[in-house]
Amino acid sequence: MALRFQNQTMRASWWDYSNSGTYFITICTKNKSRFFGKIQEGEIQLSEVGVIALEEWLNTKELRQRMRVELHQFVVMPDHFHALITIGESEFNGKNQNVTELGSIKNNEFKSQSNNLASVVRGFKSAVTTRCKKLGIEFQWQSRYHDIIVRNSEQFERIEKYIRDNPQNYKSK
Predict the structure, then answer these.
(1) For 13-43, how does the pLDDT look when each residue is reduced to its tens digit (9 = 90+)?
(2) Which domains does the chain have, with CATH numbers?
(3) What is the pLDDT of residues 111-121, one digit of tens each?
(4) Which residues neighbour 147 within 8 Å (Cβ) at sequence distance 6 or greater?
(5) To which H or E segment does residue 125 belong?
């Protein structure tokens, strides 16, 4: 039996990630290493790298003004980062697509990899890594990230609560 190695994307092939919309993202550290800090009594105690991640996430809105990015609930955890982020309507994404039409949308054409969700995540990860390198701090991200396209206000509220409660629900290894 021959093994096949595939570098498949985890992104939804039927969705254009430059579209305006709200996304739930999870980004992990390499090997789930606890670079960002530790949980004590249900609260995150950030390490120096955790503070850098927090600061760089807060810079995202300023750096992505043209995309009309809006930051919602987020949390820096010991070994991962969760966030709700909205990409607003802008010159880069045209008309907002109705999320109830998602199943019928086909966006398989190659598009620029700037001004979309991947570019936001890539910029954030790069900024954290660059600052750590300048300070001589060893740090690495997992190569990919996970995203969910938020479809409605009920889902948004559930995810928002999940993020908010994440430090209290965190299970140590």
Answers:
(1) 545 556 678 999 999 999 999 999 999 999 9
(2) 21-102+112-169 (3.30.70.1290)
(3) 455 778 888 99
(4) 10, 11, 17, 23, 24, 25, 26, 117
(5) helix 117-134
Q: Is 66 helix (H, G, I), strand (E, B) or coil?
A: helix
**Residue at token pair 């928002």:** 160
What is the Cα–Cα distance from 7 to 44, expressed in whole angstroms? 34
Using CA atoms in the order 154, 60, 92, 86, what is the torsion angle rounded to 10 degrees?
0
Q: What are phi and psi of 17, to 5 degrees?
A: -75, 5
Residues 6+ apart with CB under 8 A from 150: 21, 22, 23, 24, 84, 99, 156, 159
Cα–Cα distance measured from residue 156 to residue 152, given in angstroms and rounded to the nearest whole number: 6
Task: Look at the pTM and tell me if it is higher than 0.85.
Answer: no
Distance CA 57, CA 121 (A): 9
Measure the CA dihedral 59/63/64/69, to 10°. Answer: 20
Question: Is the separation of the CB atoms in 14 and 106 below 8 Å?
Answer: yes
